[in-house]
Design a protein that fits this description.
Bound molecules: flavin-adenine dinucleotide, iron/sulfur cluster
Strand order of the largest sheet: 3-2-1-4-5
Strand content: 5-15%
Helix content: 40-55%
Number of helices: 21
């Protein structure tokens, strides 16, 4: 006989007591089911800190549920995949009704749906209410549009949710976007004092997890010595409050700036808490608006921050569900090279890559411009197979979940979908990195040298990319400007660049 129990599956990135999964939960008859799947930690070669963060946050969440008297079945260190563990549970207990929130990974969503059909059970897959924009709203917005661009979507979100708009729907400060004010580098004479973010000492649960991860996943990349991530809702709220109180004020102006041994800059480092659902984006935006008013902060910094959450974060999620599974397979430029080994070790002579990858291995974190214009830019210019690059990003960042990682990597950094939601490839030479950081000061390569022994590999590959795709770039008004500077380089020098680039491309592991 079938059980009348409803089983509520809660995944590791759905740690929200107010989330849709627990709505209508009946503690007398229903049960929560959570699985620590070792398979999930291994299907990409995950950073130790990412594994530890998920495990610790899940255990803390389960502890909270137990304190609140939720009946819960929690599988620790299961060798099974989530779906196999679920199948076993459903079959053993003759469950006929499964409830869950839509997973943030397309593959898992398909697998759960297939399982429910195979077992003939009722599946209630609820929409994730964590986001401002529902799937239906995004589909309606995207329908019939030739170009899907963040800017127009973001304006709609601002108006729909009455954020930084007046009663007539006009943007506060008279413009929608203050991006131009938010691109400064740090002063060349030095960083000044950066207010450090609040970090959390591991408690007993986290320490247990760290010991376990060190032992079982010892060959995985990254280290755990600097593990200080928020693992509970209380900690995530403390991190949010600290950020808006002390660090938000300089977020905007230095949003794109980079500096050696400065892993966080003025960034919020709230992405992992948001993505695990320890924080809700609505409360993040409310806290930012409240600090804006309380401290009369610059509108440019506040708008710049809100655009990331209300704009980009919602937009890439909409794009992910719109374009999967194609998004994971796209390879517009047909790039086929392997990811250089040093992406996993940081052992390269390029100072910018060394710093961005080095801090990634230490903390599981790099900020947006490091991901986009350092590691991402290089991967595109070096013609790396997009799926290898995407696997790296998914494995190596503590905030990486496919709905947000894939569109950013494949779509934004690698242009693998041919510009479905970006107007041109995000590529830059060493000159950009020199302008936005101090990396080049300590590098053995020279950012303004295009070929030869001291040439910056990024500069060489940048010009090579433009030479190679010149006809295509010139055919479009959006990219025509990018090749204009090529005209100032003699034919002879262009040949030398192309020759040197071939050498660089065939020795990527030696850079
Ligand atoms: P802040 O700079 O303080 O920004 C505030 C918040 O805005 C972030 O916490 C994040 O929630 C949101 N946000 C900012 N930019 C984006 C964006 N482009 N897309 C979605 N949300 C954004 N973000 C992830 O959360 N997970 C990922 O796996 C991820 N992979 C990325 C891969 C590449 C190649 C690139 C270019 C970007 C990626 N991003 C990813 C987006 C962004 O880099 C991170 O959200 C950000 O660096 C997280 O640090 P922070 O919390 O300090 O962000
Ligand atoms: Fe990076 Fe080139 Fe600058 Fe070296 S010279 S830090 S490789 S941009």
């Amino acid at each position: 006989m079938k059980s009348s129990k409803k089983l509520v599956l809660i995944l590791g990135d759905q740690l929200d007591l107010q989330g849709a999964a627990l709505q209508g939960f009946n503690p007398k008859s229903d049960e929560v089911f959570m699985v620590e799947s070792m398979h999930e930690a291994q299907y990409v070669w995950s950073h130790k800190a990412k594994i530890a963060l998920f495990l610790s946050a899940m255990r803390h969440f389960a502890q909270t549920l137990k304190k609140l008297n939720y009946p819960i079945s929690y599988l620790q260190n299961s060798p099974l995949s989530i779906v196999d563990a679920l199948k076993e549970k459903i079959q053993q207990e003759k469950i006929s009704h499964l409830i869950c929130v839509e997973p943030g990974e397309w593959r898992l969503k398909q697998e759960i749906e297939t399982l429910a059909t195979e077992l003939g059970i009722e599946l209630e897959m609820r929409e994730d209410e964590h986001f401002f924009c529902s799937h239906r709203e995004f589909l309606e917005w995207a329908a019939g549009k030739k170009e899907l661009r963040l800017e127009y979507f973001y304006r709609l979100m601002r108006k729909t949710h009455h954020i930084l708009v007046d009663a007539d729907g006009n943007p506060e400060g008279g413009q929608w976007n203050f991006d131009q004010d938010n691109r400064k580098s740090y002063p060349k004479k030095g960083l000044g004092i950066i207010e450090e973010p609040v970090l959390f000492e591991p408690d007993a649960i986290t320490q247990d997890v760290i010991t376990f991860v060190e032992k079982v996943y010892d060959k995985h990349p990254g280290s755990l010595g600097a593990f200080r991530w928020p693992v509970t809702r209380d900690e995530a709220l403390e991190a949010l409050n600290y950020f808006v109180e002390y660090r938000l004020r300089n977020f905007g102006v230095y949003q794109d700036a980079m500096w050696t041994d400065t892993p966080y800059g003025w960034h919020s480092i709230l992405s992992s808490s948001l993505n695990l659902k320890l924080l809700n984006p609505r409360e993040v935006i409310a806290a930012v608006i409240s600090a804006y008013k309380k401290y009369s902060l610059d509108l440019s910094t506040v708008e710049g921050f809100i655009r990331q959450i209300l704009g980009w974060r919602e937009f890439v999620r909409g794009m992910y569900y719109l374009d999967m599974p194609k998004m994971a397979q796209d390879n517009y430029y047909d790039h086929q090279r392997s990811l250089p080994q040093w992406y996993w070790s940081g052992k390269t002579q390029m100072a910018c890559m060394q710093d961005a990858i080095g801090q990634t291995l230490k903390y599981g974190y790099a900020h947006h411009i490091q991901r986009l214009m350092v590691t991402g830019n290089f991967a595109l210019l070096a013609e790396i197979l997009p799926s290898e690059v995407c696997d790296w990003y998914l494995a190596i960042y503590v905030d990486a979940i496919e709905w947000v990682e894939l569109p950013n990597t494949a779509g934004m950094a690698l242009f693998a979908n041919g510009g479905r939601f970006t107007s041109k490839p995000y590529i830059a030479s060493g000159a950009y990195i020199k302008r936005m950081s101090n990396y080049c000061d300590s590098c053995q390569y020279k950012p303004d040298v295009r070929f030869g022994e001291t040439a910056c590999p990024i500069t060489t590959l940048y010009w090579n990319f433009l030479i190679k795709h010149r006809a295509q770039f010139e055919a479009s008004p959006r990219t025509r400007l990018m090749t204009a500077n090529l005209k100032r380089i003699s034919d002879e020098d262009q040949q030398s660049i192309a020759r040197h680039a071939q050498h660089v491309l065939s020795h990527l592991n030696d850079l």
